[in-house]
Structure formats: C-alpha cells, structure tokens
Amino acid sequence: MLKLFYKLYLPVIILLLLGYTAKVNWNDGQWQNVLEADAKGYYAYLPAVFVFHDLNFGFYQKAEVENATDPNLVYDYRVTYHGHTIDKYFVGEALLLAPFYETAHILTKLSSKHADGYSRYYVISITLAALFYLFLGLIALKKTMELYGFEKFTIFIVITVIVFGTNLFYYSIGEMGMSHVYSFSMVSLFMLYVTKYFRDFRLKYILYAALFFGLVVLIRPVNAMVILSVPFLAQRKENLIKGLKNYISHPGTMAASIFIVLMFISIQLVIYKLQTGSFFVYSYGEEGFNFKAPQIINFLFSYKKGLFIYTPVTFVSLFGFIYLWKDKYRFFTLLSFLFIIVYVLSSWWMWYYGGSFSSRVMVEYLPYFAMLLGFLYKGFVKQWQKIAFIGILLLLTTVNQVQTLQYRYYIIHWSAMNKERYWNVFMDIKPILNRKTQ
Asked: 426 in helix, strand or coil?
C-alpha cells in the first residue's frame, strides 16, 4: 500500500492543483485575467508566429488594447531597439507552451470561436502547460533525491512542502503565465541529469543536461547561473575532476553538448535578427544590474518582498547546512552557489521584481532548497525531532497558503508592503470570508 502511495502521490498533487486551477482560472470571470504583466510578453511570440505572422507585434493595439476586458491589465511588453519594435522578454517559455497552444488553436477552430490566440481555450492551455511542467519538474526532483539516498517518506514530505509551502504554488496556479514554473522544471531536469552523470559518467547524460540547460537559458538568460551548481551536484571533488576529465577526453560529446546549448540560444538570436537586423540585442534598455550595491538584506528579509518573510520554509531549510558541515565539499559548494544566486539576483535595479508574491525569481532554485530540507530532516535522529520538524513544516505551509490567499485578494499588496502593513494583516482572512458571504 505504501509503495502504491509513493508512486501515486505526485499525480494526486497535480490532480488537486488541476481542480483548483479549473475552479479559479477557467470560468468566464477569470480566464481573461490569467495573462498579466510580463506573462503577456512571454506568451506573445505564439500569436505573433502562428496567427499574425508579425514578429514586430503590430497586432498589439488590437489584441491588447481594443479587446481588453480590463484596462488596468493592459501591459505593453514591447520595446524599441534602433527603430524596430521587439518583445522585451525571451522566447523560451513560448517554445515550451507551443504544443499546448497548437492544441488550443485546433480546438478553437473546430469550435468556430475566434482563433486569435487570446480566446478562452488558449488561456486554459497555459494553465494546463504550467501543471504539466510542474509535474515534470517534481518527477525530476523526486528522482534526484532518490539518487542522493533520501528515504521515500523524506522525499514525500519535502516535495509536498515545496509545492504547497512555497511560492511555487502561486506561480503554478496563480500567475502561471510567468516564466518561473517552467524554469523550475528545466532546472530540476538539469539537476537530475548532471547528478546522474557524476554517478556513472555516462556521456548521454551530458547531452540531456545540455538540452535542459539550453532551455533554462532561453527562458531567462540570467538563470544560466545554474551551471555553477555542477560542483555541488558532483557530490565529491574526485567525482568533479573525473567527470570533467571524462568530458574533455570526448571531443565529440563536448561538441554535441555545446551545439545543443547554442542551438537553443540561437532561436532567440535569429528572432532578433529577423526583428532588427542584428543578432545581439539587449532588450531591457537602461535596466540592469548594480553589482556594487546588492540589496541582499532587502531581497531576503524585507517586508516588501523578502524571500524569508513570504516563503519562510526556505529560511528553515538553511539549517540543513548544519548537517552538511561534516561534508565540507558539499557544504561549501552549495553555500557558494546559493550565495552567488542571491548576490546576482539582489543586484538587479529593481531587486523586488515589480508586482510579485515573495521573491519570485527564486522559484527556479527551489530544488536546491528542497535538498537542504532533505538533509535537515535526515539529520534528525530521534522520532520526536522528526515529528516536531514535520509540525513546523505544516505550520509554515499553512502560513504560505494563507499569504497566497491574501495576495490573491489584495490583502497583501503586490508592491506596497511594509512592516506595519504586514503585521496588521498577518494571517487575517476575515475580509476574504466576509467578501464571499456578501
């Protein structure tokens, strides 16, 4: 019975989320709101290619402004580069959405509805895609944790908490048009195949890792930093050296892996060439990083968006380093990797990343926090310690669920939170209950 449960709990989680997303995102009053802000830009490549055949987005006025159901949700994802109009965002997410989009396109045509890329079936397809890639990412995370020798119950606890106790939940069923759940999936798959490679040094795993790394970069180029986790994923210095020597000694595999990565990156470069005549474009204009003044404390602890405030499970996971201390190699490689991630992401000019729940740019790195949770739970020897820890995780998961609900109903503001406002509404869902009873 327990073996069957272990095999089925991931599909059960996805089915639960499917029921939830259908309830809150598929009805007539909600589906128009699924594509918001940045999500419009990530998605726009699909109607641009398959419907309007216009990579300079001349259809924007009609699709976004004239047909807008809510003027407050109109968002211009276009920027001008040397006189040419381009999409500010990258094409990777659209590539992953394409099979779902095409299915929706066919269904829309068969139903005689308006096949402009923005009607109901298209939007529903995004919600399904988000859950599909979440499922892939969770499977990969589960298999990676198995390779690390974690017990089945530990893996079940950790994955359940990562889904329901972090902002991965919100970006899977709340703003699934954003890039983060897709990045989470690709990072998890990259993590799995790098781990597999350093276990038996089979070269095919290098090619799989290259594939998912290419997709990681194509979705959000800054996430190329995930390559810095390779020393940790090797688990031992000897493995890292042996693995690198093995890789270098097979130039065919080297060339193939580099080709795979460049193949994905070239998709964006070719799009830029078609749009502007230039392969290399920086679409963010004057926006950029200020590495001299990283906002690390704000990024992690501020009431505005702090990761540890709004996703406290990630803070608790850091205690897993205590149980890694005996293994200095894994301790320092993982700590260094996470520090670099936080340093770089907190150096962005808008360290809080606009309207978002918690620090959304850390969603893709949750697999590494999951590993820390696993190490922490594994480190407890006595049964009462494990029970107490599970109690803490359940409490923090409840906090995350309440705060997610508060965010959806604008009790937690998308950008204007501070200490006073946070504690005034902490765990308060009365306004939501009163609204539903009216």
From this structure: coil
Residue 360: name the closest of 415, 282, 290 by CA.
Answer: 415
> Long-range pairs for 430-437 at CB < 8 Å and ≥24 separation?
432/405, 432/406, 435/409
DSSP category for residue 203: T
Comparing CA positions, the residue from 60, 20, 66, 18 lying closest to residue 40 is: 60
Q: What span, in angstroms and rounded, lies between the C-alpha atoms of 229 and 221?
A: 16
Nearest to 258 by CA among 226, 225, 211, 215: 211
First-residue to last-residue Cα distance in the chain: 45
DSSP category for residue 223:
G
Question: What gap in Å lies between CA 188 and CA 157, rounded to an integer?
Answer: 17
The neighbouring-strand residues paired with 332 are none
pTM across the whole model: 0.95
- Please report the beta strands in 252-295, taking only residues with DSSP state E, as ranges in sequence order: none
Going by C-alpha positions, the residue among 24, 14, 12 that lies closest to residue 408 is 24
Strand partners, 78: 87
Q: Which whole-number Å values give the CA distances from 198 to 148, 191, 233, 234, 241, in the listed order?
A: 12, 11, 8, 5, 10
3-state secondary structure of 269: helix
Q: Tokens in use for 66?
A: 């004239």
Instruction: Give CA 157 to chain center in angstroms.
Output: 20
pLDDT tens per residue across span 219-253 = 999 999 999 999 999 999 999 999 999 999 999 99
pLDDT in tens, 114-153: 788 888 899 999 999 999 999 999 999 999 999 999 999 9
Please give the Cα distance from 327 to 318 (Å, whole number).
15
Q: What angle do CA 138, 143, 149 make, to 5 degrees?
A: 130
Say which residue the tokens 């979440």 belong to. 134
